[in-house]
Amino acid sequence: MRCIPLRWKSPPSIFAIHNENALPGDSMIVYGSALWLIEKITLPGGREVTDIKGNLEGTRVAFILPDLGNDTGRLTVVAKYGSATNDGPINDHQSGDVLSNLTNWGETGEEPRFNWSYWGAVRTNDAAKFPGTKGYYLNNVFGGVTKENGAWWEGNRSGNFDSTAMFSPAIRSRQASDYALKFEVSTKEPWTTALCLLRISDKYAVRWEPFKGTSGNSYHTDHQWVTITVPLSAFRANNGDGEGMGANAMSMSELVLPDGRFVFGYRFISTDKPIDIFNAAFDNFRIVKIK
């Protein structure tokens, strides 16, 4: 009689998806735990995938993404001993969740969700520079920045967007931990020093330094687009110690204006080290419900 190890009888869980906006034909990678004995993966539009490859540790599975068209929704892993659904829609680059996909009216590739303020970075749809895009994106490329340089308005060191009417005022009664900022990033060069300030209005920020704690203190997506998820409860108030150094946001009323508008942007500064070269692209900024 074949015995199934007890650890394989645990229900699966999903921690992250490598790129929630992968192109049809690309490999979509799901990271989690107990990803064993998978029967199928269900996708938006009622699609099902059964040709799945995983690792022995049960920490990742991969499959070839079919063409989802305009369908967006959650991915579910269905296994022998349970199922798990990811915390945000996939193929979510042109829905009402999207603050900006950088594509304007009359441009091809996706439905426009523009809201860009026309300055701070290079807007392009050059797929040769950053392959795997569905439309336009922002490219922040700069260098020769001295240490402790906070002049983020110089040399392509920011991403600036118009305030976006995307919520009903009722959302202000919800907890900030129920929602997350998601976006895709692709690095051309290893990211080793620049501090990125993800900002909501002028009151809250996240000090994002993905290189910290990595091997060699270097972050690199290896020229692939990767989805970043930042719970809105991770945004902290600006205080006398600096941006994003105060108390964490608790309520959406702290982050969303009374009329339901949302104000977002990002900028780069240097801290205790100079920035020799920074070259990365950003796309598909969106706010999604994760709980």
3D structure, described in words:
- It is built from no helices and 21 strands.
- By secondary structure, it is an all-beta fold.
- The strands form 5 sheets. Strands 9, 10, 11, 14, 17 and 21 form a 6-stranded antiparallel beta sheet that branches.
- The model has no long low-confidence stretch (mean pLDDT 96).
Topology:
Blueprint: E1 13-17, E2 27-33, E3 38-43, E4 47-49, E5 53-54, E6 60-64, E7 76-79, E8 82-85, E9 98-100, E10 122-124, E11 137-145, E12 158-160, E13 164-165, E14 179-187, E15 195-200, E16 204-208, E17 226-231, E18 236-237, E19 261-262, E20 264-269, E21 275-289
Antiparallel strand pairs: 1-2, 2-6, 3-4, 3-7, 5-6, 7-8, 9-21, 10-11, 11-21, 12-20, 13-19, 14-17, 14-21, 15-16, 15-20, 16-18
- From N to C, what is the helix and strand string? EEEEEEEEEEEEEEEEEEEEE
Q: Please state roughly what percent of the residues sit in beta strands, choosing from under 5%, 5-15%, 15-25%, 25-35%, 35-45% or over 45%.
A: 35-45%
- The radius of gyration is 20 Å
Number of strands: 21
Average pLDDT metric: 96
Number of H/I helices: 0
Distance between the termini: 42 Å
> Uncertain spans, ≥5 residues at pLDDT below 50?
none
Provide the structure class: mainly beta
Shape: globular
Estimated helix fraction:
under 10%
- Sheet with the most strands, sense and barrel status: 6 strands, antiparallel
